[in-house]
Design a protein that fits this description.
The protein is 52% helix and 0% strand. By secondary structure, it is mainly alpha-helical. The protein has one domain. It is globular. The N and C termini lie far apart (42 Å).
Amino acid sequence: MPSAASRIVREAKTIQVMIAMFCREHHACAGAARPGRSAPLCAGCRELRDYALRRLERCPFQTGKTTCALCPIHCYRADMRERVRAVMRWAGPRMITRHPLLALGHLHDQRRKTPVRAAGGGRAASSSPAGA
């Protein structure tokens, strides 16, 4: 059985792949890849990737989270949220043919409707009686 952290690792990999696909197609500086290696990201896409990974790392829901689009907490700045939306709108449909396992994992994550706070991130249940 996969570890609880593997879901977050997969989500991080998914966003990195989507940003790399978008950058490769939309930004001229990303065209020079060496054989067997992916092209380097442009400065703007590198900034977006780093920002998205920091947000994912600091998510209060961690393994209990849904996809960011369905989350009740909008932790992305408005400008970054729009940039990620543009990347996902473009890369999302292409993921199913280029990275089918990541795409299916992302679709499965979207089925989770209500995020669940990570252990230690939420309030602990009270073990004492109300009158005590």
